[in-house]
Design goal:
Helices cover 65% and strands 0% of the residues. The chain is mostly helical. It has 2 domains: 8-167, Serine Threonine Protein Phosphatase 5, Tetratricopeptide repeat, CATH 1.25.40; 168-219. It comes from Rugamonas fusca.
Length: 219
């Protein structure tokens, strides 16, 4: 049986909502916005079509091969690689796809430097794109991979990063709400309240969802 990623499709949708295209590149060697956008269309379409998962991996892997120093492209390649495990019929093949994808994501995280806090694809900081993609992937993996706690820490790190203030309101809202729902699932109720309240206080998109979450938390 292939591995199941019960949250991954919802997380992919959240990532789609968080990004707007037409941003400024952080480095001259980065792929063009049009190239990134074309690859990301496959990634977002994979939410509804399994055939798009492989297309997403191939598209991002091609861009990554041309720009090996770009951690964003590597992170998305790893995420798509791990996601392909949901379509594999052989358990060992599924395990290999996840392991390879996680290794690529970890490498992307290790590549991050202060320069990556600058605007990247869609105008959002590269460092946040990498951490958000990594967190979403890690949190979607089965517990046997023991990546959930690291995914939660990556969300917290992204929110506390100086780069957070540079992100678009939509990206900030998605990151905060993802962190809020994760904190709630982990029974960190007060932390969940703080993240949801930040969405409301800063008048970010999804303020209505944040209000609903606060009610559920008994606020």
């Amino acid at each position: 049986m292939p591995y199941s990623f019960p949250m991954h499709r919802k997380l992919a949708a959240a990532t789609v909502l968080a990004l707007t295209f037409g941003g400024v590149m952080y480095g001259a060697q980065a792929a063009t916005e049009a190239q990134y956008q074309a690859a990301f269309r496959h990634f977002s379409a994979a939410e509804h079509d399994n055939a798009e998962i492989k297309q997403a991996y191939q598209a991002f892997d091609s861009l990554r091969a041309a720009e090996p120093g770009d951690p964003v492209l590597l992170a998305y390649t790893g995420a798509a690689h791990a996601w392909m495990a949901t379509t594999a019929t052989d358990p060992m093949a599924s395990l290999g796809l996840v392991d390879d994808g996680v290794a690529q994501i970890e490498k992307a995280l290790a590549m991050l430097k202060p320069v990556h806090d600058a605007p990247s694809y869609g105008g959002d900081p590269a460092s946040l794109l990498v951490r958000f993609t990594a967190a979403n992937t890690f949190l979607s993996l089965p517990e046997a991979f023991h990546k959930g706690p690291r995914g939660a820490r990556l969300l917290d790190d992204a929110i506390r990063s100086p780069a957070f203030a540079k992100a678009s309101p939509a990206f900030q809202a998605n990151l905060l709400m993802r962190a809020a729902t994760q904190a709630r699932q982990s029974k960190r109720t007060e932390q969940a309240r703080q993240y949801a309240q930040a969405v409301i206080s800063n008048k970010l998109p999804q303020a209505g969802e944040a209000q609903a979450l606060l009610k559920q938390l008994g606020h």
